[in-house]
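Structure ticket #2291
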Amino acid sequence: MRRLTDRALASAASFDPRGLPLAFARSVLALSELISIVFTPDHSLFTYQPGLSSGMRCYGAHDLSLWCVAGSTPAGLLSSRLIAIAVLVLVVSGYRPRWTCAPHWFVTWSLSVSMTMPSGAEEAALAGTMLMMPFLLGDTRIWHWTRPSEPLAPVWAGSSYAAWWAIRCQIAIIYFTAGISKLCTAQWRSGHAMYTVLVDPFYGLPPGIRQALGPLLASESAIRLLTWGALAIELAIAAAALSPRRARRTAFCLAVLLHGGIMVAMGLVSFGLVMIALVLTLLVGDSHTLALADASEAEAADRPLPGDFQPMAMNIPAEIMEIR
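Resolution: structure written out below.
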């Protein structure tokens, strides 16, 4: 037990999330939100419901959200949209992660609590932006694409390590719950659920793709393979989220395959990008470890040889020195 504790403390002290996995995860996450805000009209984000004349859920703490503060007037909706777009563009570009992480979370929270019917994408993005903040509050880089020039302060290394494990547990819960809930449905257990999904007139395949894949949709074996394959991938990602590095890399590839297929088949682009970005955070810290290894090797290569092995160029005959 003492050995495990010492190992965990050592891992926390040396943990540094700053690297390309974190950079791409932040940018893809903000890009998914940017797509939703830019291409979704106000009347779709905020739909009329009894008791919500403006479509916004502005009550209690929700009154502090960006959209509720700006109001439901045309000028208010435009100003809140422009502010959100400006913040998300900065996050996508990678500029000043230390100062943009809190506004990024605020925009994500504002959209999630204000829109009439938030989807799973908004809730997952909200959890991701909140748990990424410990990664970024101690980051003094100008751009999150660059390699760190100095080690992370111990307090931020420890908090980042704790947040990273929280993200891993969150991902495991999301995919485990998704897989188990499907197993409770008869259509998923029988292997026919994907046929219902793919031929749905609203969420299913576009007509052109559906027609091209007609023989595949008519094959019972192929439908069962797709149905049970999706289940297996979700449960595999859940298990890999809490596993060593190689399994986490496999989980990311599986997530790209799963959500890439969902984006093509069902058009859920924002949701797919959010989940791919979250699973990418499983690889946070890997690139920094490799960078430290490269730096150590370079330092060892530049270190002078011991005195007994120093070549004495002055003792080499001139005839040998002239050989090319």
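Closing remark: The two ends are 62 Å apart (CA to CA).
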